[in-house]
């Protein structure tokens, strides 16, 4: 397995970050690795200098076309002793907030999974240095990044679907035990949001449901929501 530090597929962003490669180099390297039978991974870094939403969307689409076997997403954190820290202090670089990092990473991860690309990590692994406020000066770093990203992906799809259902009868939401935090949300934020924003009475419980799926039952009607697919809810 070889993982490439792709970071972006926008040549302007790559140049500003002084990565030393172009988007074309990523295409060529991916093809060469595949030619020799390697498993190919792409590492992406949303929030680099010069990136905006259109740039992120283009990068996401380009990675989906290349179809790596796996991907990792690391929203930018500003670390002490780096050129990026100097740019931030001088006001030349505006880092992502944690919320902005979650939004961008969730967008990328959702599209990757829908295209069958295994996204094996979102956010930097917590370490003693990274949890030191004197080392991480700004940017989208939190040990809970992965949970927050999945909370956003699951919550947006589930709440959007629930809003399309009639007010009565009551609704039961079932999920795999291992999906509990994703479905209910980080610190139960999705449950709390549903409670104050939806008119239906909701019951949440663990059930024999495949990972990545949510079972929504209203009366005798049962829906299956595959969060990692773009097919939408299906009646079962």
Walk me through what this model shows:
By secondary structure, the protein is of the alpha/beta class. Helix content is 38%, strand content 22%. The chain folds into two domains: 2-143, Transcription Regulator spoIIAA (2-Layer Sandwich), CATH 3.30.750.200; 162-235, no CATH class. It has helices at residues 11-16, 23-35, 53-66, 83-89, 98-114, 145-163, 180-184, 189-197, and strands at 2-7, 40-44, 70-73, 77-79, 118-122, 136-139, 171-175, 202-206, 213-218, 221-226, 234-235. The chain has a five-stranded mixed beta sheet with strand order 8-7-9-10-11. A four-stranded parallel beta sheet has the order 1-2-3-5. Strand 2 (40-44), helix 3 (53-66) and strand 3 (70-73) form a beta-alpha-beta unit. Helix 3 (53-66) packs parallel to helix 5 (98-114) and helix 5 packs across helix 6 (145-163). The chain is globular, with a radius of gyration of 20 Å. The mean pLDDT is 95.
């Amino acid at each position: 397995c070889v993982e490439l530090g792709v970071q972006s597929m926008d040549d302007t962003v790559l140049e500003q970050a002084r990565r030393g490669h172009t988007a074309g180099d990523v295409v060529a390297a991916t093809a060469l690795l595949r030619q020799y039978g390697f498993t190919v991974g792409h590492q992406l870094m949303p929030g680099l200098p010069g990136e905006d939403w259109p740039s992120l969307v283009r990068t996401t689409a380009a990675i989906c076309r290349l179809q790596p076997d796996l991907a990792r997403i690391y929203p930018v954190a500003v670390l002490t002793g780096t050129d990026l820290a100097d740019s931030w202090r001088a006001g030349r670089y505006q880092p992502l907030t944690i919320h902005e990092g979650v939004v961008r990473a969730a967008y990328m991860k959702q599209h990757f999974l829908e295209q069958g690309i295994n996204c094996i990590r979102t956010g930097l692994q917590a370490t003693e240095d990274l949890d030191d406020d004197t080392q991480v000066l700004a940017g989208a770093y939190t040990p809970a990044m992965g949970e927050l990203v999945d909370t956003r992906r699951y919550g947006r799809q589930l709440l959007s679907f629930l809003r399309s259902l009639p007010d009565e009868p009551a609704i039961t939401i079932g999920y795999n035990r291992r999906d509990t935090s994703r479905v209910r949300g980080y610190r139960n934020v999705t449950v709390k949001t549903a409670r104050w924003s939806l008119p239906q009475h909701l019951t949440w419980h663990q059930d024999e449901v495949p990972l990545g799926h949510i079972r929504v039952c209203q009366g005798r009607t049962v829906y299956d929501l595959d969060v990692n697919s773009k097919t939408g809810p299906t009646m079962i």
